[in-house]
Design a protein that fits this description.
The structure holds two protein chains of two kinds. Chain A is mainly α. Chain A is built from five helices and two strands; from the N terminus they run ααααββα. Chain A has two domains: 1-71, Arc Repressor Mutant, subunit A; 72-105. In chain A, β1 and β2 form a beta hairpin. By secondary structure, chain B is an alpha+beta fold. In chain B, 27% of the residues lie in helices and 35% in strands. Chain B is built from five helices and seven strands; from the N terminus they run βααββββαββαα. A seven-stranded antiparallel beta sheet of chain B has the order 1-7-6-5-4-3-2. The chains are: A mainly alpha, B alpha+beta.
Chain lengths: 105, 149
């Protein structure tokens, strides 16, 4: 819904690192993620909060634990909105070039 | 680059859609909607069964475990389109719809109980569910399908 938040969340290496860790293994606790980083618990919490606000991380309660899940949908939507649009133009430019070259050949 | 090092036995997907819970409920339960975003299959969901038709033929039947329109739908899942996946144990899919301020709804899809279905887990992860959810969002928001099947 809010592209700015997603781009901002992705603009930080620690947050990208956290997403990569969740990509490897999903559904992790704060304590678990904290062990991957040389950072205070509060620091990790702050980064997770930004990721959560951007919709890139979703938390679910399981018993007494709060688990963090990677939500890839916002990245997909950005892909649909930004990447597809531009690659489409490139592809059609190449298609035009091909037909032009083949016509003159 | 990272690689998936283990099978995710619970997968969570979330998307905001500019639609009411009732519209989203219809889009996930009524066959005329699903054909436009769910990999081209027609899915008819009743309070007890979720029947999937492919080219007009009944291709798969799943149990509906919870039916609370327009907020919560839970059903069993078998990836029938692949013989190896189809032979795995059934997993579970939950759709949760929460209305938000400003005419939006938050749709959460949880695909879990995938312990007995590693190939299915890898198959539906990422692109699989994302195609469905971004397609659903596009159909509801623009009235047009994201892709043609």
């Amino acid at each position: 819904m809010d592209d700015d938040r997603v781009f901002k969340a992705l603009a930080d290496p620690t947050r990208r690192f956290l997403l990569d860790r969740l990509f490897e293994r999903d559904g992790r606790t704060l304590t678990d993620l904290e062990e991957e980083l040389e950072m205070t618990r509060f620091g990790v919490m702050k980064h997770l909060r930004v990721l959560e606000d951007a919709g890139l991380v979703v938390t679910r309660r399981q018993g007494r634990e709060k688990l963090h899940f990677l939500n890839p949908v916002p990245i997909r939507l950005i892909h649909d909105r930004w990447i597809d649009k531009y690659t489409e133009r490139q592809v059609s430019a190449l298609a035009d070039l091909k037909s032009e070259l083949e016509e003159t050949a | 680059m990272t690689t998936i090092t283990e099978v995710q036995t619970t997968q969570v997907y979330q998307v905001f859609i500019k639609a009411t819970p009732e519209q989203i409920w219809d889009a996930i339960t009524k066959p005329e909607f699903t054909a436009r975003y769910f990999h081209g299959v027609t899915i008819d969901t009743s309070p007890s069964r979720r029947q999937t038709y492919y080219h007009g033929e009944l291709a798969n039947e799943a149990d509906v475990l919870e039916w609370e329109p327009p907020r919560r739908l839970v059903h069993s899942w078998i990836s029938f389109y692949d013989a190896e996946m189809a032979a795995e144990e059934p997993s579970r899919v939950s759709w949760e719809i929460e209305p938000q301020e400003g005419g939006y709804s938050l749709l959460t899809v949880v695909h879990d109980q995938l312990e007995g279905a590693p190939k299915t887990a890898a198959g539906v992860a990422g692109a699989g569910w994302m195609m469905v959810l971004s397609g659903l969002k596009t159909v509801l928001e623009t009235g047009e399908p994201l892709t043609t099947f």
